[in-house]
Amino acid sequence: MESLIGLLVFGAFFYLMMRFGCGAHMVHGHGGAHGAHAAEQGGRDPVCGMQVAADRGYTSMHRGARVYFCSKSCLDKFEADPDKYAPAGAQGGSHEK
User: Which of 2, 16, 50, 67 is the most exposed place for a label (fewest CB within 10 A)?
Assistant: First the structure.
């Protein structure tokens, strides 16, 4: 019986730490600039100006720089006329998702 109570107390503690403590950023997706997440944050969509997370939306390489898009529509607009939307300092290119 004591081991069952101990297991329940440990489970409650684990739940509270993951929900409100050190694991909260993992559960709620608020990792931000922690560890490996800091390497690639994403970027601003050059067509609409929306901030795009690295693991969301679409990307394209334009003149050696990765460009982020919030939607397929913005990607299509960019590919139709990349020089109109190209970020400053971009150089080389191909397309990928």
Answer: 2
Residue 50 identity: M
CA atoms within 13 A on the CB side of 95: 9
Q: Which residues contact 91 (CB under 8 A, 6 or more apart)?
A: 63, 64, 65
Q: Longest Cα pair distance anywhere in the chain, in angstroms? A: 71
Name the DSSP class of 28.
Answer: T
Average confidence (pLDDT) over 31-37: 46
- Taken as a whole, the chain contains a residue count of 97
Q: What are phi and psi of 57, to 5 degrees?
A: 65, -150
In whole angstroms, give the CA distance from residue 7 to residue 12: 9
Prediction pTM value: 0.50
